[in-house]
TrEMBL record:
Transmembrane segments: none annotated. It comes from Saxibacter everestensis. This is MaoC family dehydratase. It holds the Pfam family MaoC_dehydratas. Residues 19-135 form the MaoC-like domain. PANTHER family: BETA-METHYLMALYL-COA DEHYDRATASE (PTHR43664:SF1), MONOAMINE OXIDASE-RELATED (PTHR43664). The lineage of its organism: Bacteria, Bacillati, Actinomycetota, Actinomycetes, Micrococcales.
Length: 156
């Protein structure tokens, strides 16, 4: 008997549903090590991310998770479900905001709504999909928002 093989992949252009909310699970708990590593590797010397004593004197009273790590994780949580193996390229991000901070130990959950999709005029077999990503912490508070434009392959 031959076993059937299934490879995890994202959605083809035709499969993106304008009437759905895609919930990306599991979430990702953000650790101090994640934040320190990302902040160091990206050369972001902001004391709010690295210096606990300094951050204690600031309005939130503790270190903040680097917002670029939050954005990267927000998008990353969507990849397996939406774009794994079907994306051609990210075309751009807009309307990025961080309504509430993320702290060490918070768990980030992501959800995505498809705002628009259209076939590419210049690249046959591909389409442009506009996605609205929302990140929520473990309490359901919105901590990140981003609109992303992507080029996605059509079904072969």
């Amino acid at each position: 008997m031959t076993r059937r093989e299934i490879v995890q992949q994202g959605l083809w252009f035709e499969e993106f549903d304008l009437d759905a909310v895609y919930l990306h699970r599991p979430g990702r708990t953000i650790t101090e090590a994640d934040n320190t590593w990302f902040t160091a590797v990206t050369m972001n010397t902001q004391a709010l991310h690295l210096d606990a004593a300094f951050a204690e004197t600031e309005p939130f009273g503790q270190r903040l998770v680097n917002s670029m790590f939050t954005l990267s994780t927000l998008v990353g949580l969507s990849v397996a479900q939406l774009t794994q193996g079907t994306i051609v390229a990210n075309l751009g991000f807009s309307d990025v905001s961080f309504p509430k901070p993320v702290f060490h130990g918070d768990t980030l959950y992501a959800e995505t709504v498809v705002l628009d999709k259209r076939l590419s005029k210049s690249r046959p077999g591909e389409g442009v999909v506009t996605l609205k990503h929302t990140g929520r912490n473990q309490h359901g508070d919105v901590v990140a928002l981003a609109t992303r434009s992507t080029m996605v392959r059509c079904k072969p």
